[in-house]
Amino acid sequence: MTQVLLPSTEQPGVLLARHLGVPGRRGLVSGITELTPGLSGARVFRVHLSSDNRRDTPLVDRALPSSVIVKVPDAGNHTGIAPQDPQVATREVNFYESGVVERLPAGVRPPRLIGVDRFNGTSGGARQGTLLWTEDVADALSVRWEPPLLFKAARHVAALQHVFRESEPNLLALPWLERDGHAAHAHFVPAAHQRLDRMGAHPRWGWIFTSKERQELHQALDLAAWAAKELRRLPQTFVHGDFHILNLGIESLGAPHGGALVAIDWAHAGIGPLGADVATLINQYATMGGDGDMRPGSELERDTLEMYCAAVAQSAPHTGFSEGGLRATVRRAAGLWHLTWGLHLRLGPGLDWLLRRPDQDADAAAADAEGIRDGCVRALAFMQGAV
Predict the structure, then answer these.
(1) If pLDDT is split at 50, 70 and 90, which confidence band does 283 have?
(2) CATH number at residue 304
(3) 5 inside domain
(4) Which pLDDT belongs to residue 326?
(5) 346: closest CA among 380, 375, 320, 323?
(6) Which of 49, 90, 211, 226 is the most exposed place for a label (fewest CB within 10 A)?
(7) Is residue 123 packed enough to be buried (19+ CB in 10 Å), middle (13-18) or exposed (0-12)?
(8) In the listed set 136, 151, 182, which residue is the last one of a domain according to the structure?
């Protein structure tokens, strides 16, 4: 679709005024700041509201906020990690409009929906596209991620997945849900093989993997079809699909939903194996700046999985799993997730980005290199014990 631009405050002000129930209010928007993440196919903006307009109106139950978020999910940005998923641009709108949000368990919530605008490009020269208006949850997202909050996130996502296991037949029928999210980046496998071959002789990045590790990683990439088959055999449930700490926050205790886990970016919401979301949480924790030792096999990794398993067992004691069977199932799902999704991202667009980084970004590039190695070693650790 053709990108809907936000060139000034006028059009967003008119649209937003309608959604907020303040028709005719002029000067509602005082400015717009782009927040678009560098690896997203969408565009995201923070829309700042004028202080003169932040007062109660007959159609809103509290003062207007200082800002809101508008997302253009179908902006058509071309990025290095775009999944081969034709519904990724419409899924988040479907998530909000389907009624799924109302079924989320207490303690887990997305940003509140303000409104949706669609443009079909058929009249008045309007461009095609969608604007998704939501609450700005910047305060919740600003938390520092340390082990206690990590464990809280693991417990909350377990509750989320239990709710939907109870209504799984109905959920599986929703046509817009992502399926086989583990394979969303499998199309990078051929290029990943080529980049691995280049790494050994690279003057700057040859240190990341030993020759033995490169050989093992080639073997791991070739396991994509086997791993996909194994993942489909595991118990399936509803998953957020991109459950890492940059997409998560904690509501302050003084807020209306104090202590709740706030999750943004539901563009990959779908069906996946029990344990997939906590696998993503672990896989990306260190790379995304979380505190603590999350190396493969670390105590923090084991404790995070344990917190998740204990929460699943507590919220769903009638699932039919024995205590040991549940833990074995979750560990297998997490390991297979690292071997597919995590490995494909790091050896595909991850290595591509690293090999093209300019020298002036030395510190950031070194951090990226450590993140690539961390995820790959985690995948190898599982492969060596499971294949």
Answers:
(1) very high
(2) 3.90.1200
(3) no
(4) 87
(5) 375
(6) 211
(7) exposed
(8) 136
